[in-house]
Write a structure and sequence with these properties.
The chain has about 170 residues and is α+β, with helices and mostly antiparallel strands. It contains five helices and seven strands; from the N terminus they run βαααβββαβαββ. A seven-stranded mixed sheet has the order 1-2-3-4-5-7-6, covered by helices on one side.
Length: about 170
């Protein structure tokens, strides 16, 4: 049995999101969060856009035994015809890192992606220097497709990004 469960993202999650979205220790390895501060209004608008989107499916991660909010995961940029989508996952509290919550959430969201959503492929981007992230994704079965050189400008410098993916037939 998984230590986590997923539930649909809700507007009520905004206060949870605000506890981590501007913390560089949490979001430092996530390109989409770098370079700006987010307000509560920004996050409420993000949640509303996401809930209305046909190309994004986002879940809040909860500890299965307590219902405690742990973070978010989802599939973004779903291409309807090609059945391809981008995986994202964040565990919000530093004290929860390394406890398997992110891995458990990714397993559940991939079950959803390759099951009910019927995706053919899930992909992600990770900073090349994020060895821990690349190792975790590799253990889950993601394959490195290639390096996008100097793909992302972050904190005054250019960084390489690694694209990783998994095909539905590769998922257990």
């Amino acid at each position: 049995m998984s230590a986590v469960r997923l539930r649909p993202l809700a507007e009520s999650d905004v206060d949870h999101i605000m506890t981590w979205v501007n913390d560089p220790e949490i979001t430092g390895n996530i390109a989409a969060f770098s370079g700006r501060a987010f307000t509560r209004d920004d996050e409420l608008a993000y949640v509303r856009r996401t809930l209305a989107s046909k190309s994004d499916v986002v879940f809040s991660i909860e500890e299965a035994s307590t219902g405690r909010y742990l973070g978010q995961t989802g599939i973004h940029q779903i291409h309807e015809r090609s059945k391809v989508g981008r995986l994202a996952c964040i565990v919000a509290a530093k004290g929860d890192h390394g406890r398997g919550f992110g891995t458990g959430a990714i397993r559940l969201v991939l079950d959803h992606a390759f099951g009910p959503l019927g995706l053919h492929k899930a992909w992600l981007m990770v900073f090349r220097h994020n060895e821990r992230g690349r190792r975790i994704y590799g253990k889950l079965g993601f394959v490195e497709e290639g390096v996008l050189r100097e793909e992302y400008f972050h904190e005054g410098g250019w960084f390489d990004m690694v694209r990783m993916s998994m095909l539905a037939r590769e998922w257990p």
